Amino acid sequence: MTARIFLKLILGVLCVLIVALAAVDVLASRVAETSFRETLERELTQKGRIMALSYTGGLSTHTSKRAQELGLAAGARVTLIDRTGRVLADSEADASQMENHSARPEVASALRGTPGSASRKSATTRTDFLYVAIPHPQGALRLAVPLVDVQAQVDSIRRRMLVSTALAFLPAILIAALFARYVSSKLGAIIEYAGKLAEGNFHVRLLKPGADELGILGTKLNDTGEKLEHMMGELQREHNELEKLERIRKDFVINVSHELRTPLASIQGYTETLLDGAIHDEKHNVRFLNIIRQNAERLTNLASDLLTISRIESGSQKFQFATYYVNNLIEDCVDSMRPLAQKKGIALHILQAAADAEVFCDWKAVHQALSNLLENAIKYTPDGGEITVSTSPAARPGYVQFSVRDTGIGIPNDELPRLFERFYRVDKARSRELGGTGLGLAIVKHLARSHGGEVAVESEIGKGSVFSFTLPDHDPGEMPKAPDASADAIVSVP
After folding, report:
1. In the chain, what percentage of residues exceed pLDDT 70?
2. CA–CA separation, 36 vs 23, rounded Å?
3. What pLDDT was estimated at residue 62?
4. Residue 327: what pLDDT?
5. How confident is the model at residue 389 (pLDDT cuts 50, 70, 90)?
6. By C-alpha distance, which of 325, 333, 397 is closest to 365?
7. What contacts 24+ positions apart, CB below 8 Å, involve 17-22?
8. Mean pLDDT for the chain?
9. Which of 4, 9, 105, 252: disulfide with 118, CB 3.0–4.6 Å?
10. What are phi and psi of 451, to 5 degrees?
């Protein structure tokens, strides 16, 4: 690429120089010819005047031999003409054979008393001459030089001028070559860089673009490449985000459809059974109605949880933030869950925080988050187990960590990263047997993030699990926007 540009620039410069040399040849040749003829005319005029002064005895007394001697001395053809135009003598021709010259322009001018000149072909010698005629009291004296000699002198001057001009162009060619090399290297680099940009390689940059016009162009291309790289990065991130959201949307539709199908099928089946006559069966009708009621409650809970997540993610959930004592929040929630724990003989313990410990939160949101964690713990803790609710300073300054520890069955480590996803269950068969919508932990995560906090889980098979979330202990200012639905799989594990 650089070699082609260099060659084109050099050829362009050479074409310009050739045209300039031709122009110099044409113009300078004309100037040289005109200047030489004028100089020659002046010389012939001066020689003629000197000769005219030497003819003191009269023109008619001079013979052709004398004319030849004068012509040889002057280096020109000499012609003596009387006042009537008759040729008296000529250095190169027989005067008696020559016609009257009174009509010749140069002779006519000289006979009138003014030197004259003209260029034409001689009727006698058939040769082109430059004629100069000088006035004489007895007629005119004319000198002539062949134009061939004039043209030879002009051609000699022309050749010398062309050689001189060509030699003068050599430094220009050298400078042009250096300039062409510089420009071609710059343009080659810019064209190569533009090609990389066209191929989508936006991370490359031009090195040392310089401060001249091509350097400014290179700098602008670098800026363009940087902006394109940033733009493509943003587009790629948005594309990945859209793909992620699309996967989540599809999974959500599949999960919701699956969650709705089971209770709806159960309700439909038992309803049809009752309509077919089982409603009069005192042994089974009440049990069937209880199953229908349980599945209806399951659908109600699912719809409620879906609305809760939807409101939080869309930002339409309105929180009433205020400062609350930590112990009061925990005691209210634990008291509401004691009846459910007592049915399984599970002991609920509270590790009291400092009496003046406070958090800045929405009371209902925290009550729901703790209730969801406690409900999960009760479901998966065997009868006679223990559940402990406690608080501690979080690793993040200015935050308090709420923890729910159980003595349940535990969770495999490879399942922990997805626990807070919507509808994700470790043991799907057991989860459906125990009830629940599969949205409880997702709601906990979104509620915590709406307060600027995070969720975490740690577990050990056969020993139990610890679920936790954090809340600010003071007003942090503007609360975060609605949590990003695409971040469902992100879980903080201490």
Report:
1. 81
2. 19
3. 60
4. 92
5. very high
6. 333
7. 17/169, 17/172, 17/173, 20/169, 21/162, 21/165, 21/166, 21/169
8. 79
9. 105
10. -100, 5
pTM equals: 0.47
- Residue 372 makes CB contacts below 8 A (sequence gap 6+) with 440, 441, 443, 444
Strand ordering across the sheet containing 347-350: 347-350, 386-393, 399-406, 464-472, 455-460
**Alpha helices, DSSP H, located in 320-362:** 326-343
* Burial track 227-236 (b if 16+ CB lie within 10 A, e otherwise): eebeeeeeee
User: SS3 of 459, please?
Assistant: strand
Lookup: tokens for 471: 């809340």
Q: Which residue type is seen at 61?
A: T
**Comparing C-alpha atoms, which of 366, 276, 284, 353 is closest to residue 321?**
366
Mean pLDDT for 97-115 is 88
**Strand ranges (E), 264-326:** 321-325
> Predicted confidence band at 349 (pLDDT cuts at 50, 70, 90)?
very high
Distance CA 311, CA 48 (A): 121
Buried-state track 122-133, b at ≥16 Cβ within 10 A, e below 16? bebeeeebbbbb
pLDDT at 493: 33
* Contact status, residue 309 vs residue 442, Cβ threshold 8 Å: yes
d(CA 318, CA 310): 12
Distance CA 95, CA 68 (A): 12
489 confidence band (pLDDT: 50, 70, 90):
very low
**Torsion on CA atoms 90, 93, 95, 98, rounded to nearest 10:** -120
> What SS3 class is residue 203?
coil
Give SS3 for 118.
strand
3-state SS assignment for residue 53: helix
Mean pLDDT of 428-441: 58
Query: pLDDT digits over 455-467, tens only?
Result: 999 988 888 999 9
What radius of gyration, in Å, describes the C-alpha atoms of the chain?
58
- Higher model confidence: residue 256 or residue 175? 175
Q: Which helix (H) or strand (E) holds 18?
A: helix 2-54
Q: Name the nearest CA neighbour of 73 among 48, 102, 93, 106.
A: 48
Length of the chain: 494
Query: In terms of C-beta density within 10 A (0-12 exposed, 13-18 middle, 19 or more buried), how is residue 116 classed?
Result: buried
Tokens of 486: 């695409």
Contact 454, 491 (CB under 8 A): no
Q: pLDDT for 298-323, tens place per residue?
A: 777 667 767 776 777 666 678 788 99
d(C-alpha 48, C-alpha 147), whole Å: 18
The distance of Cα 213 from the centroid of its chain, to the nearest Å, equals: 18
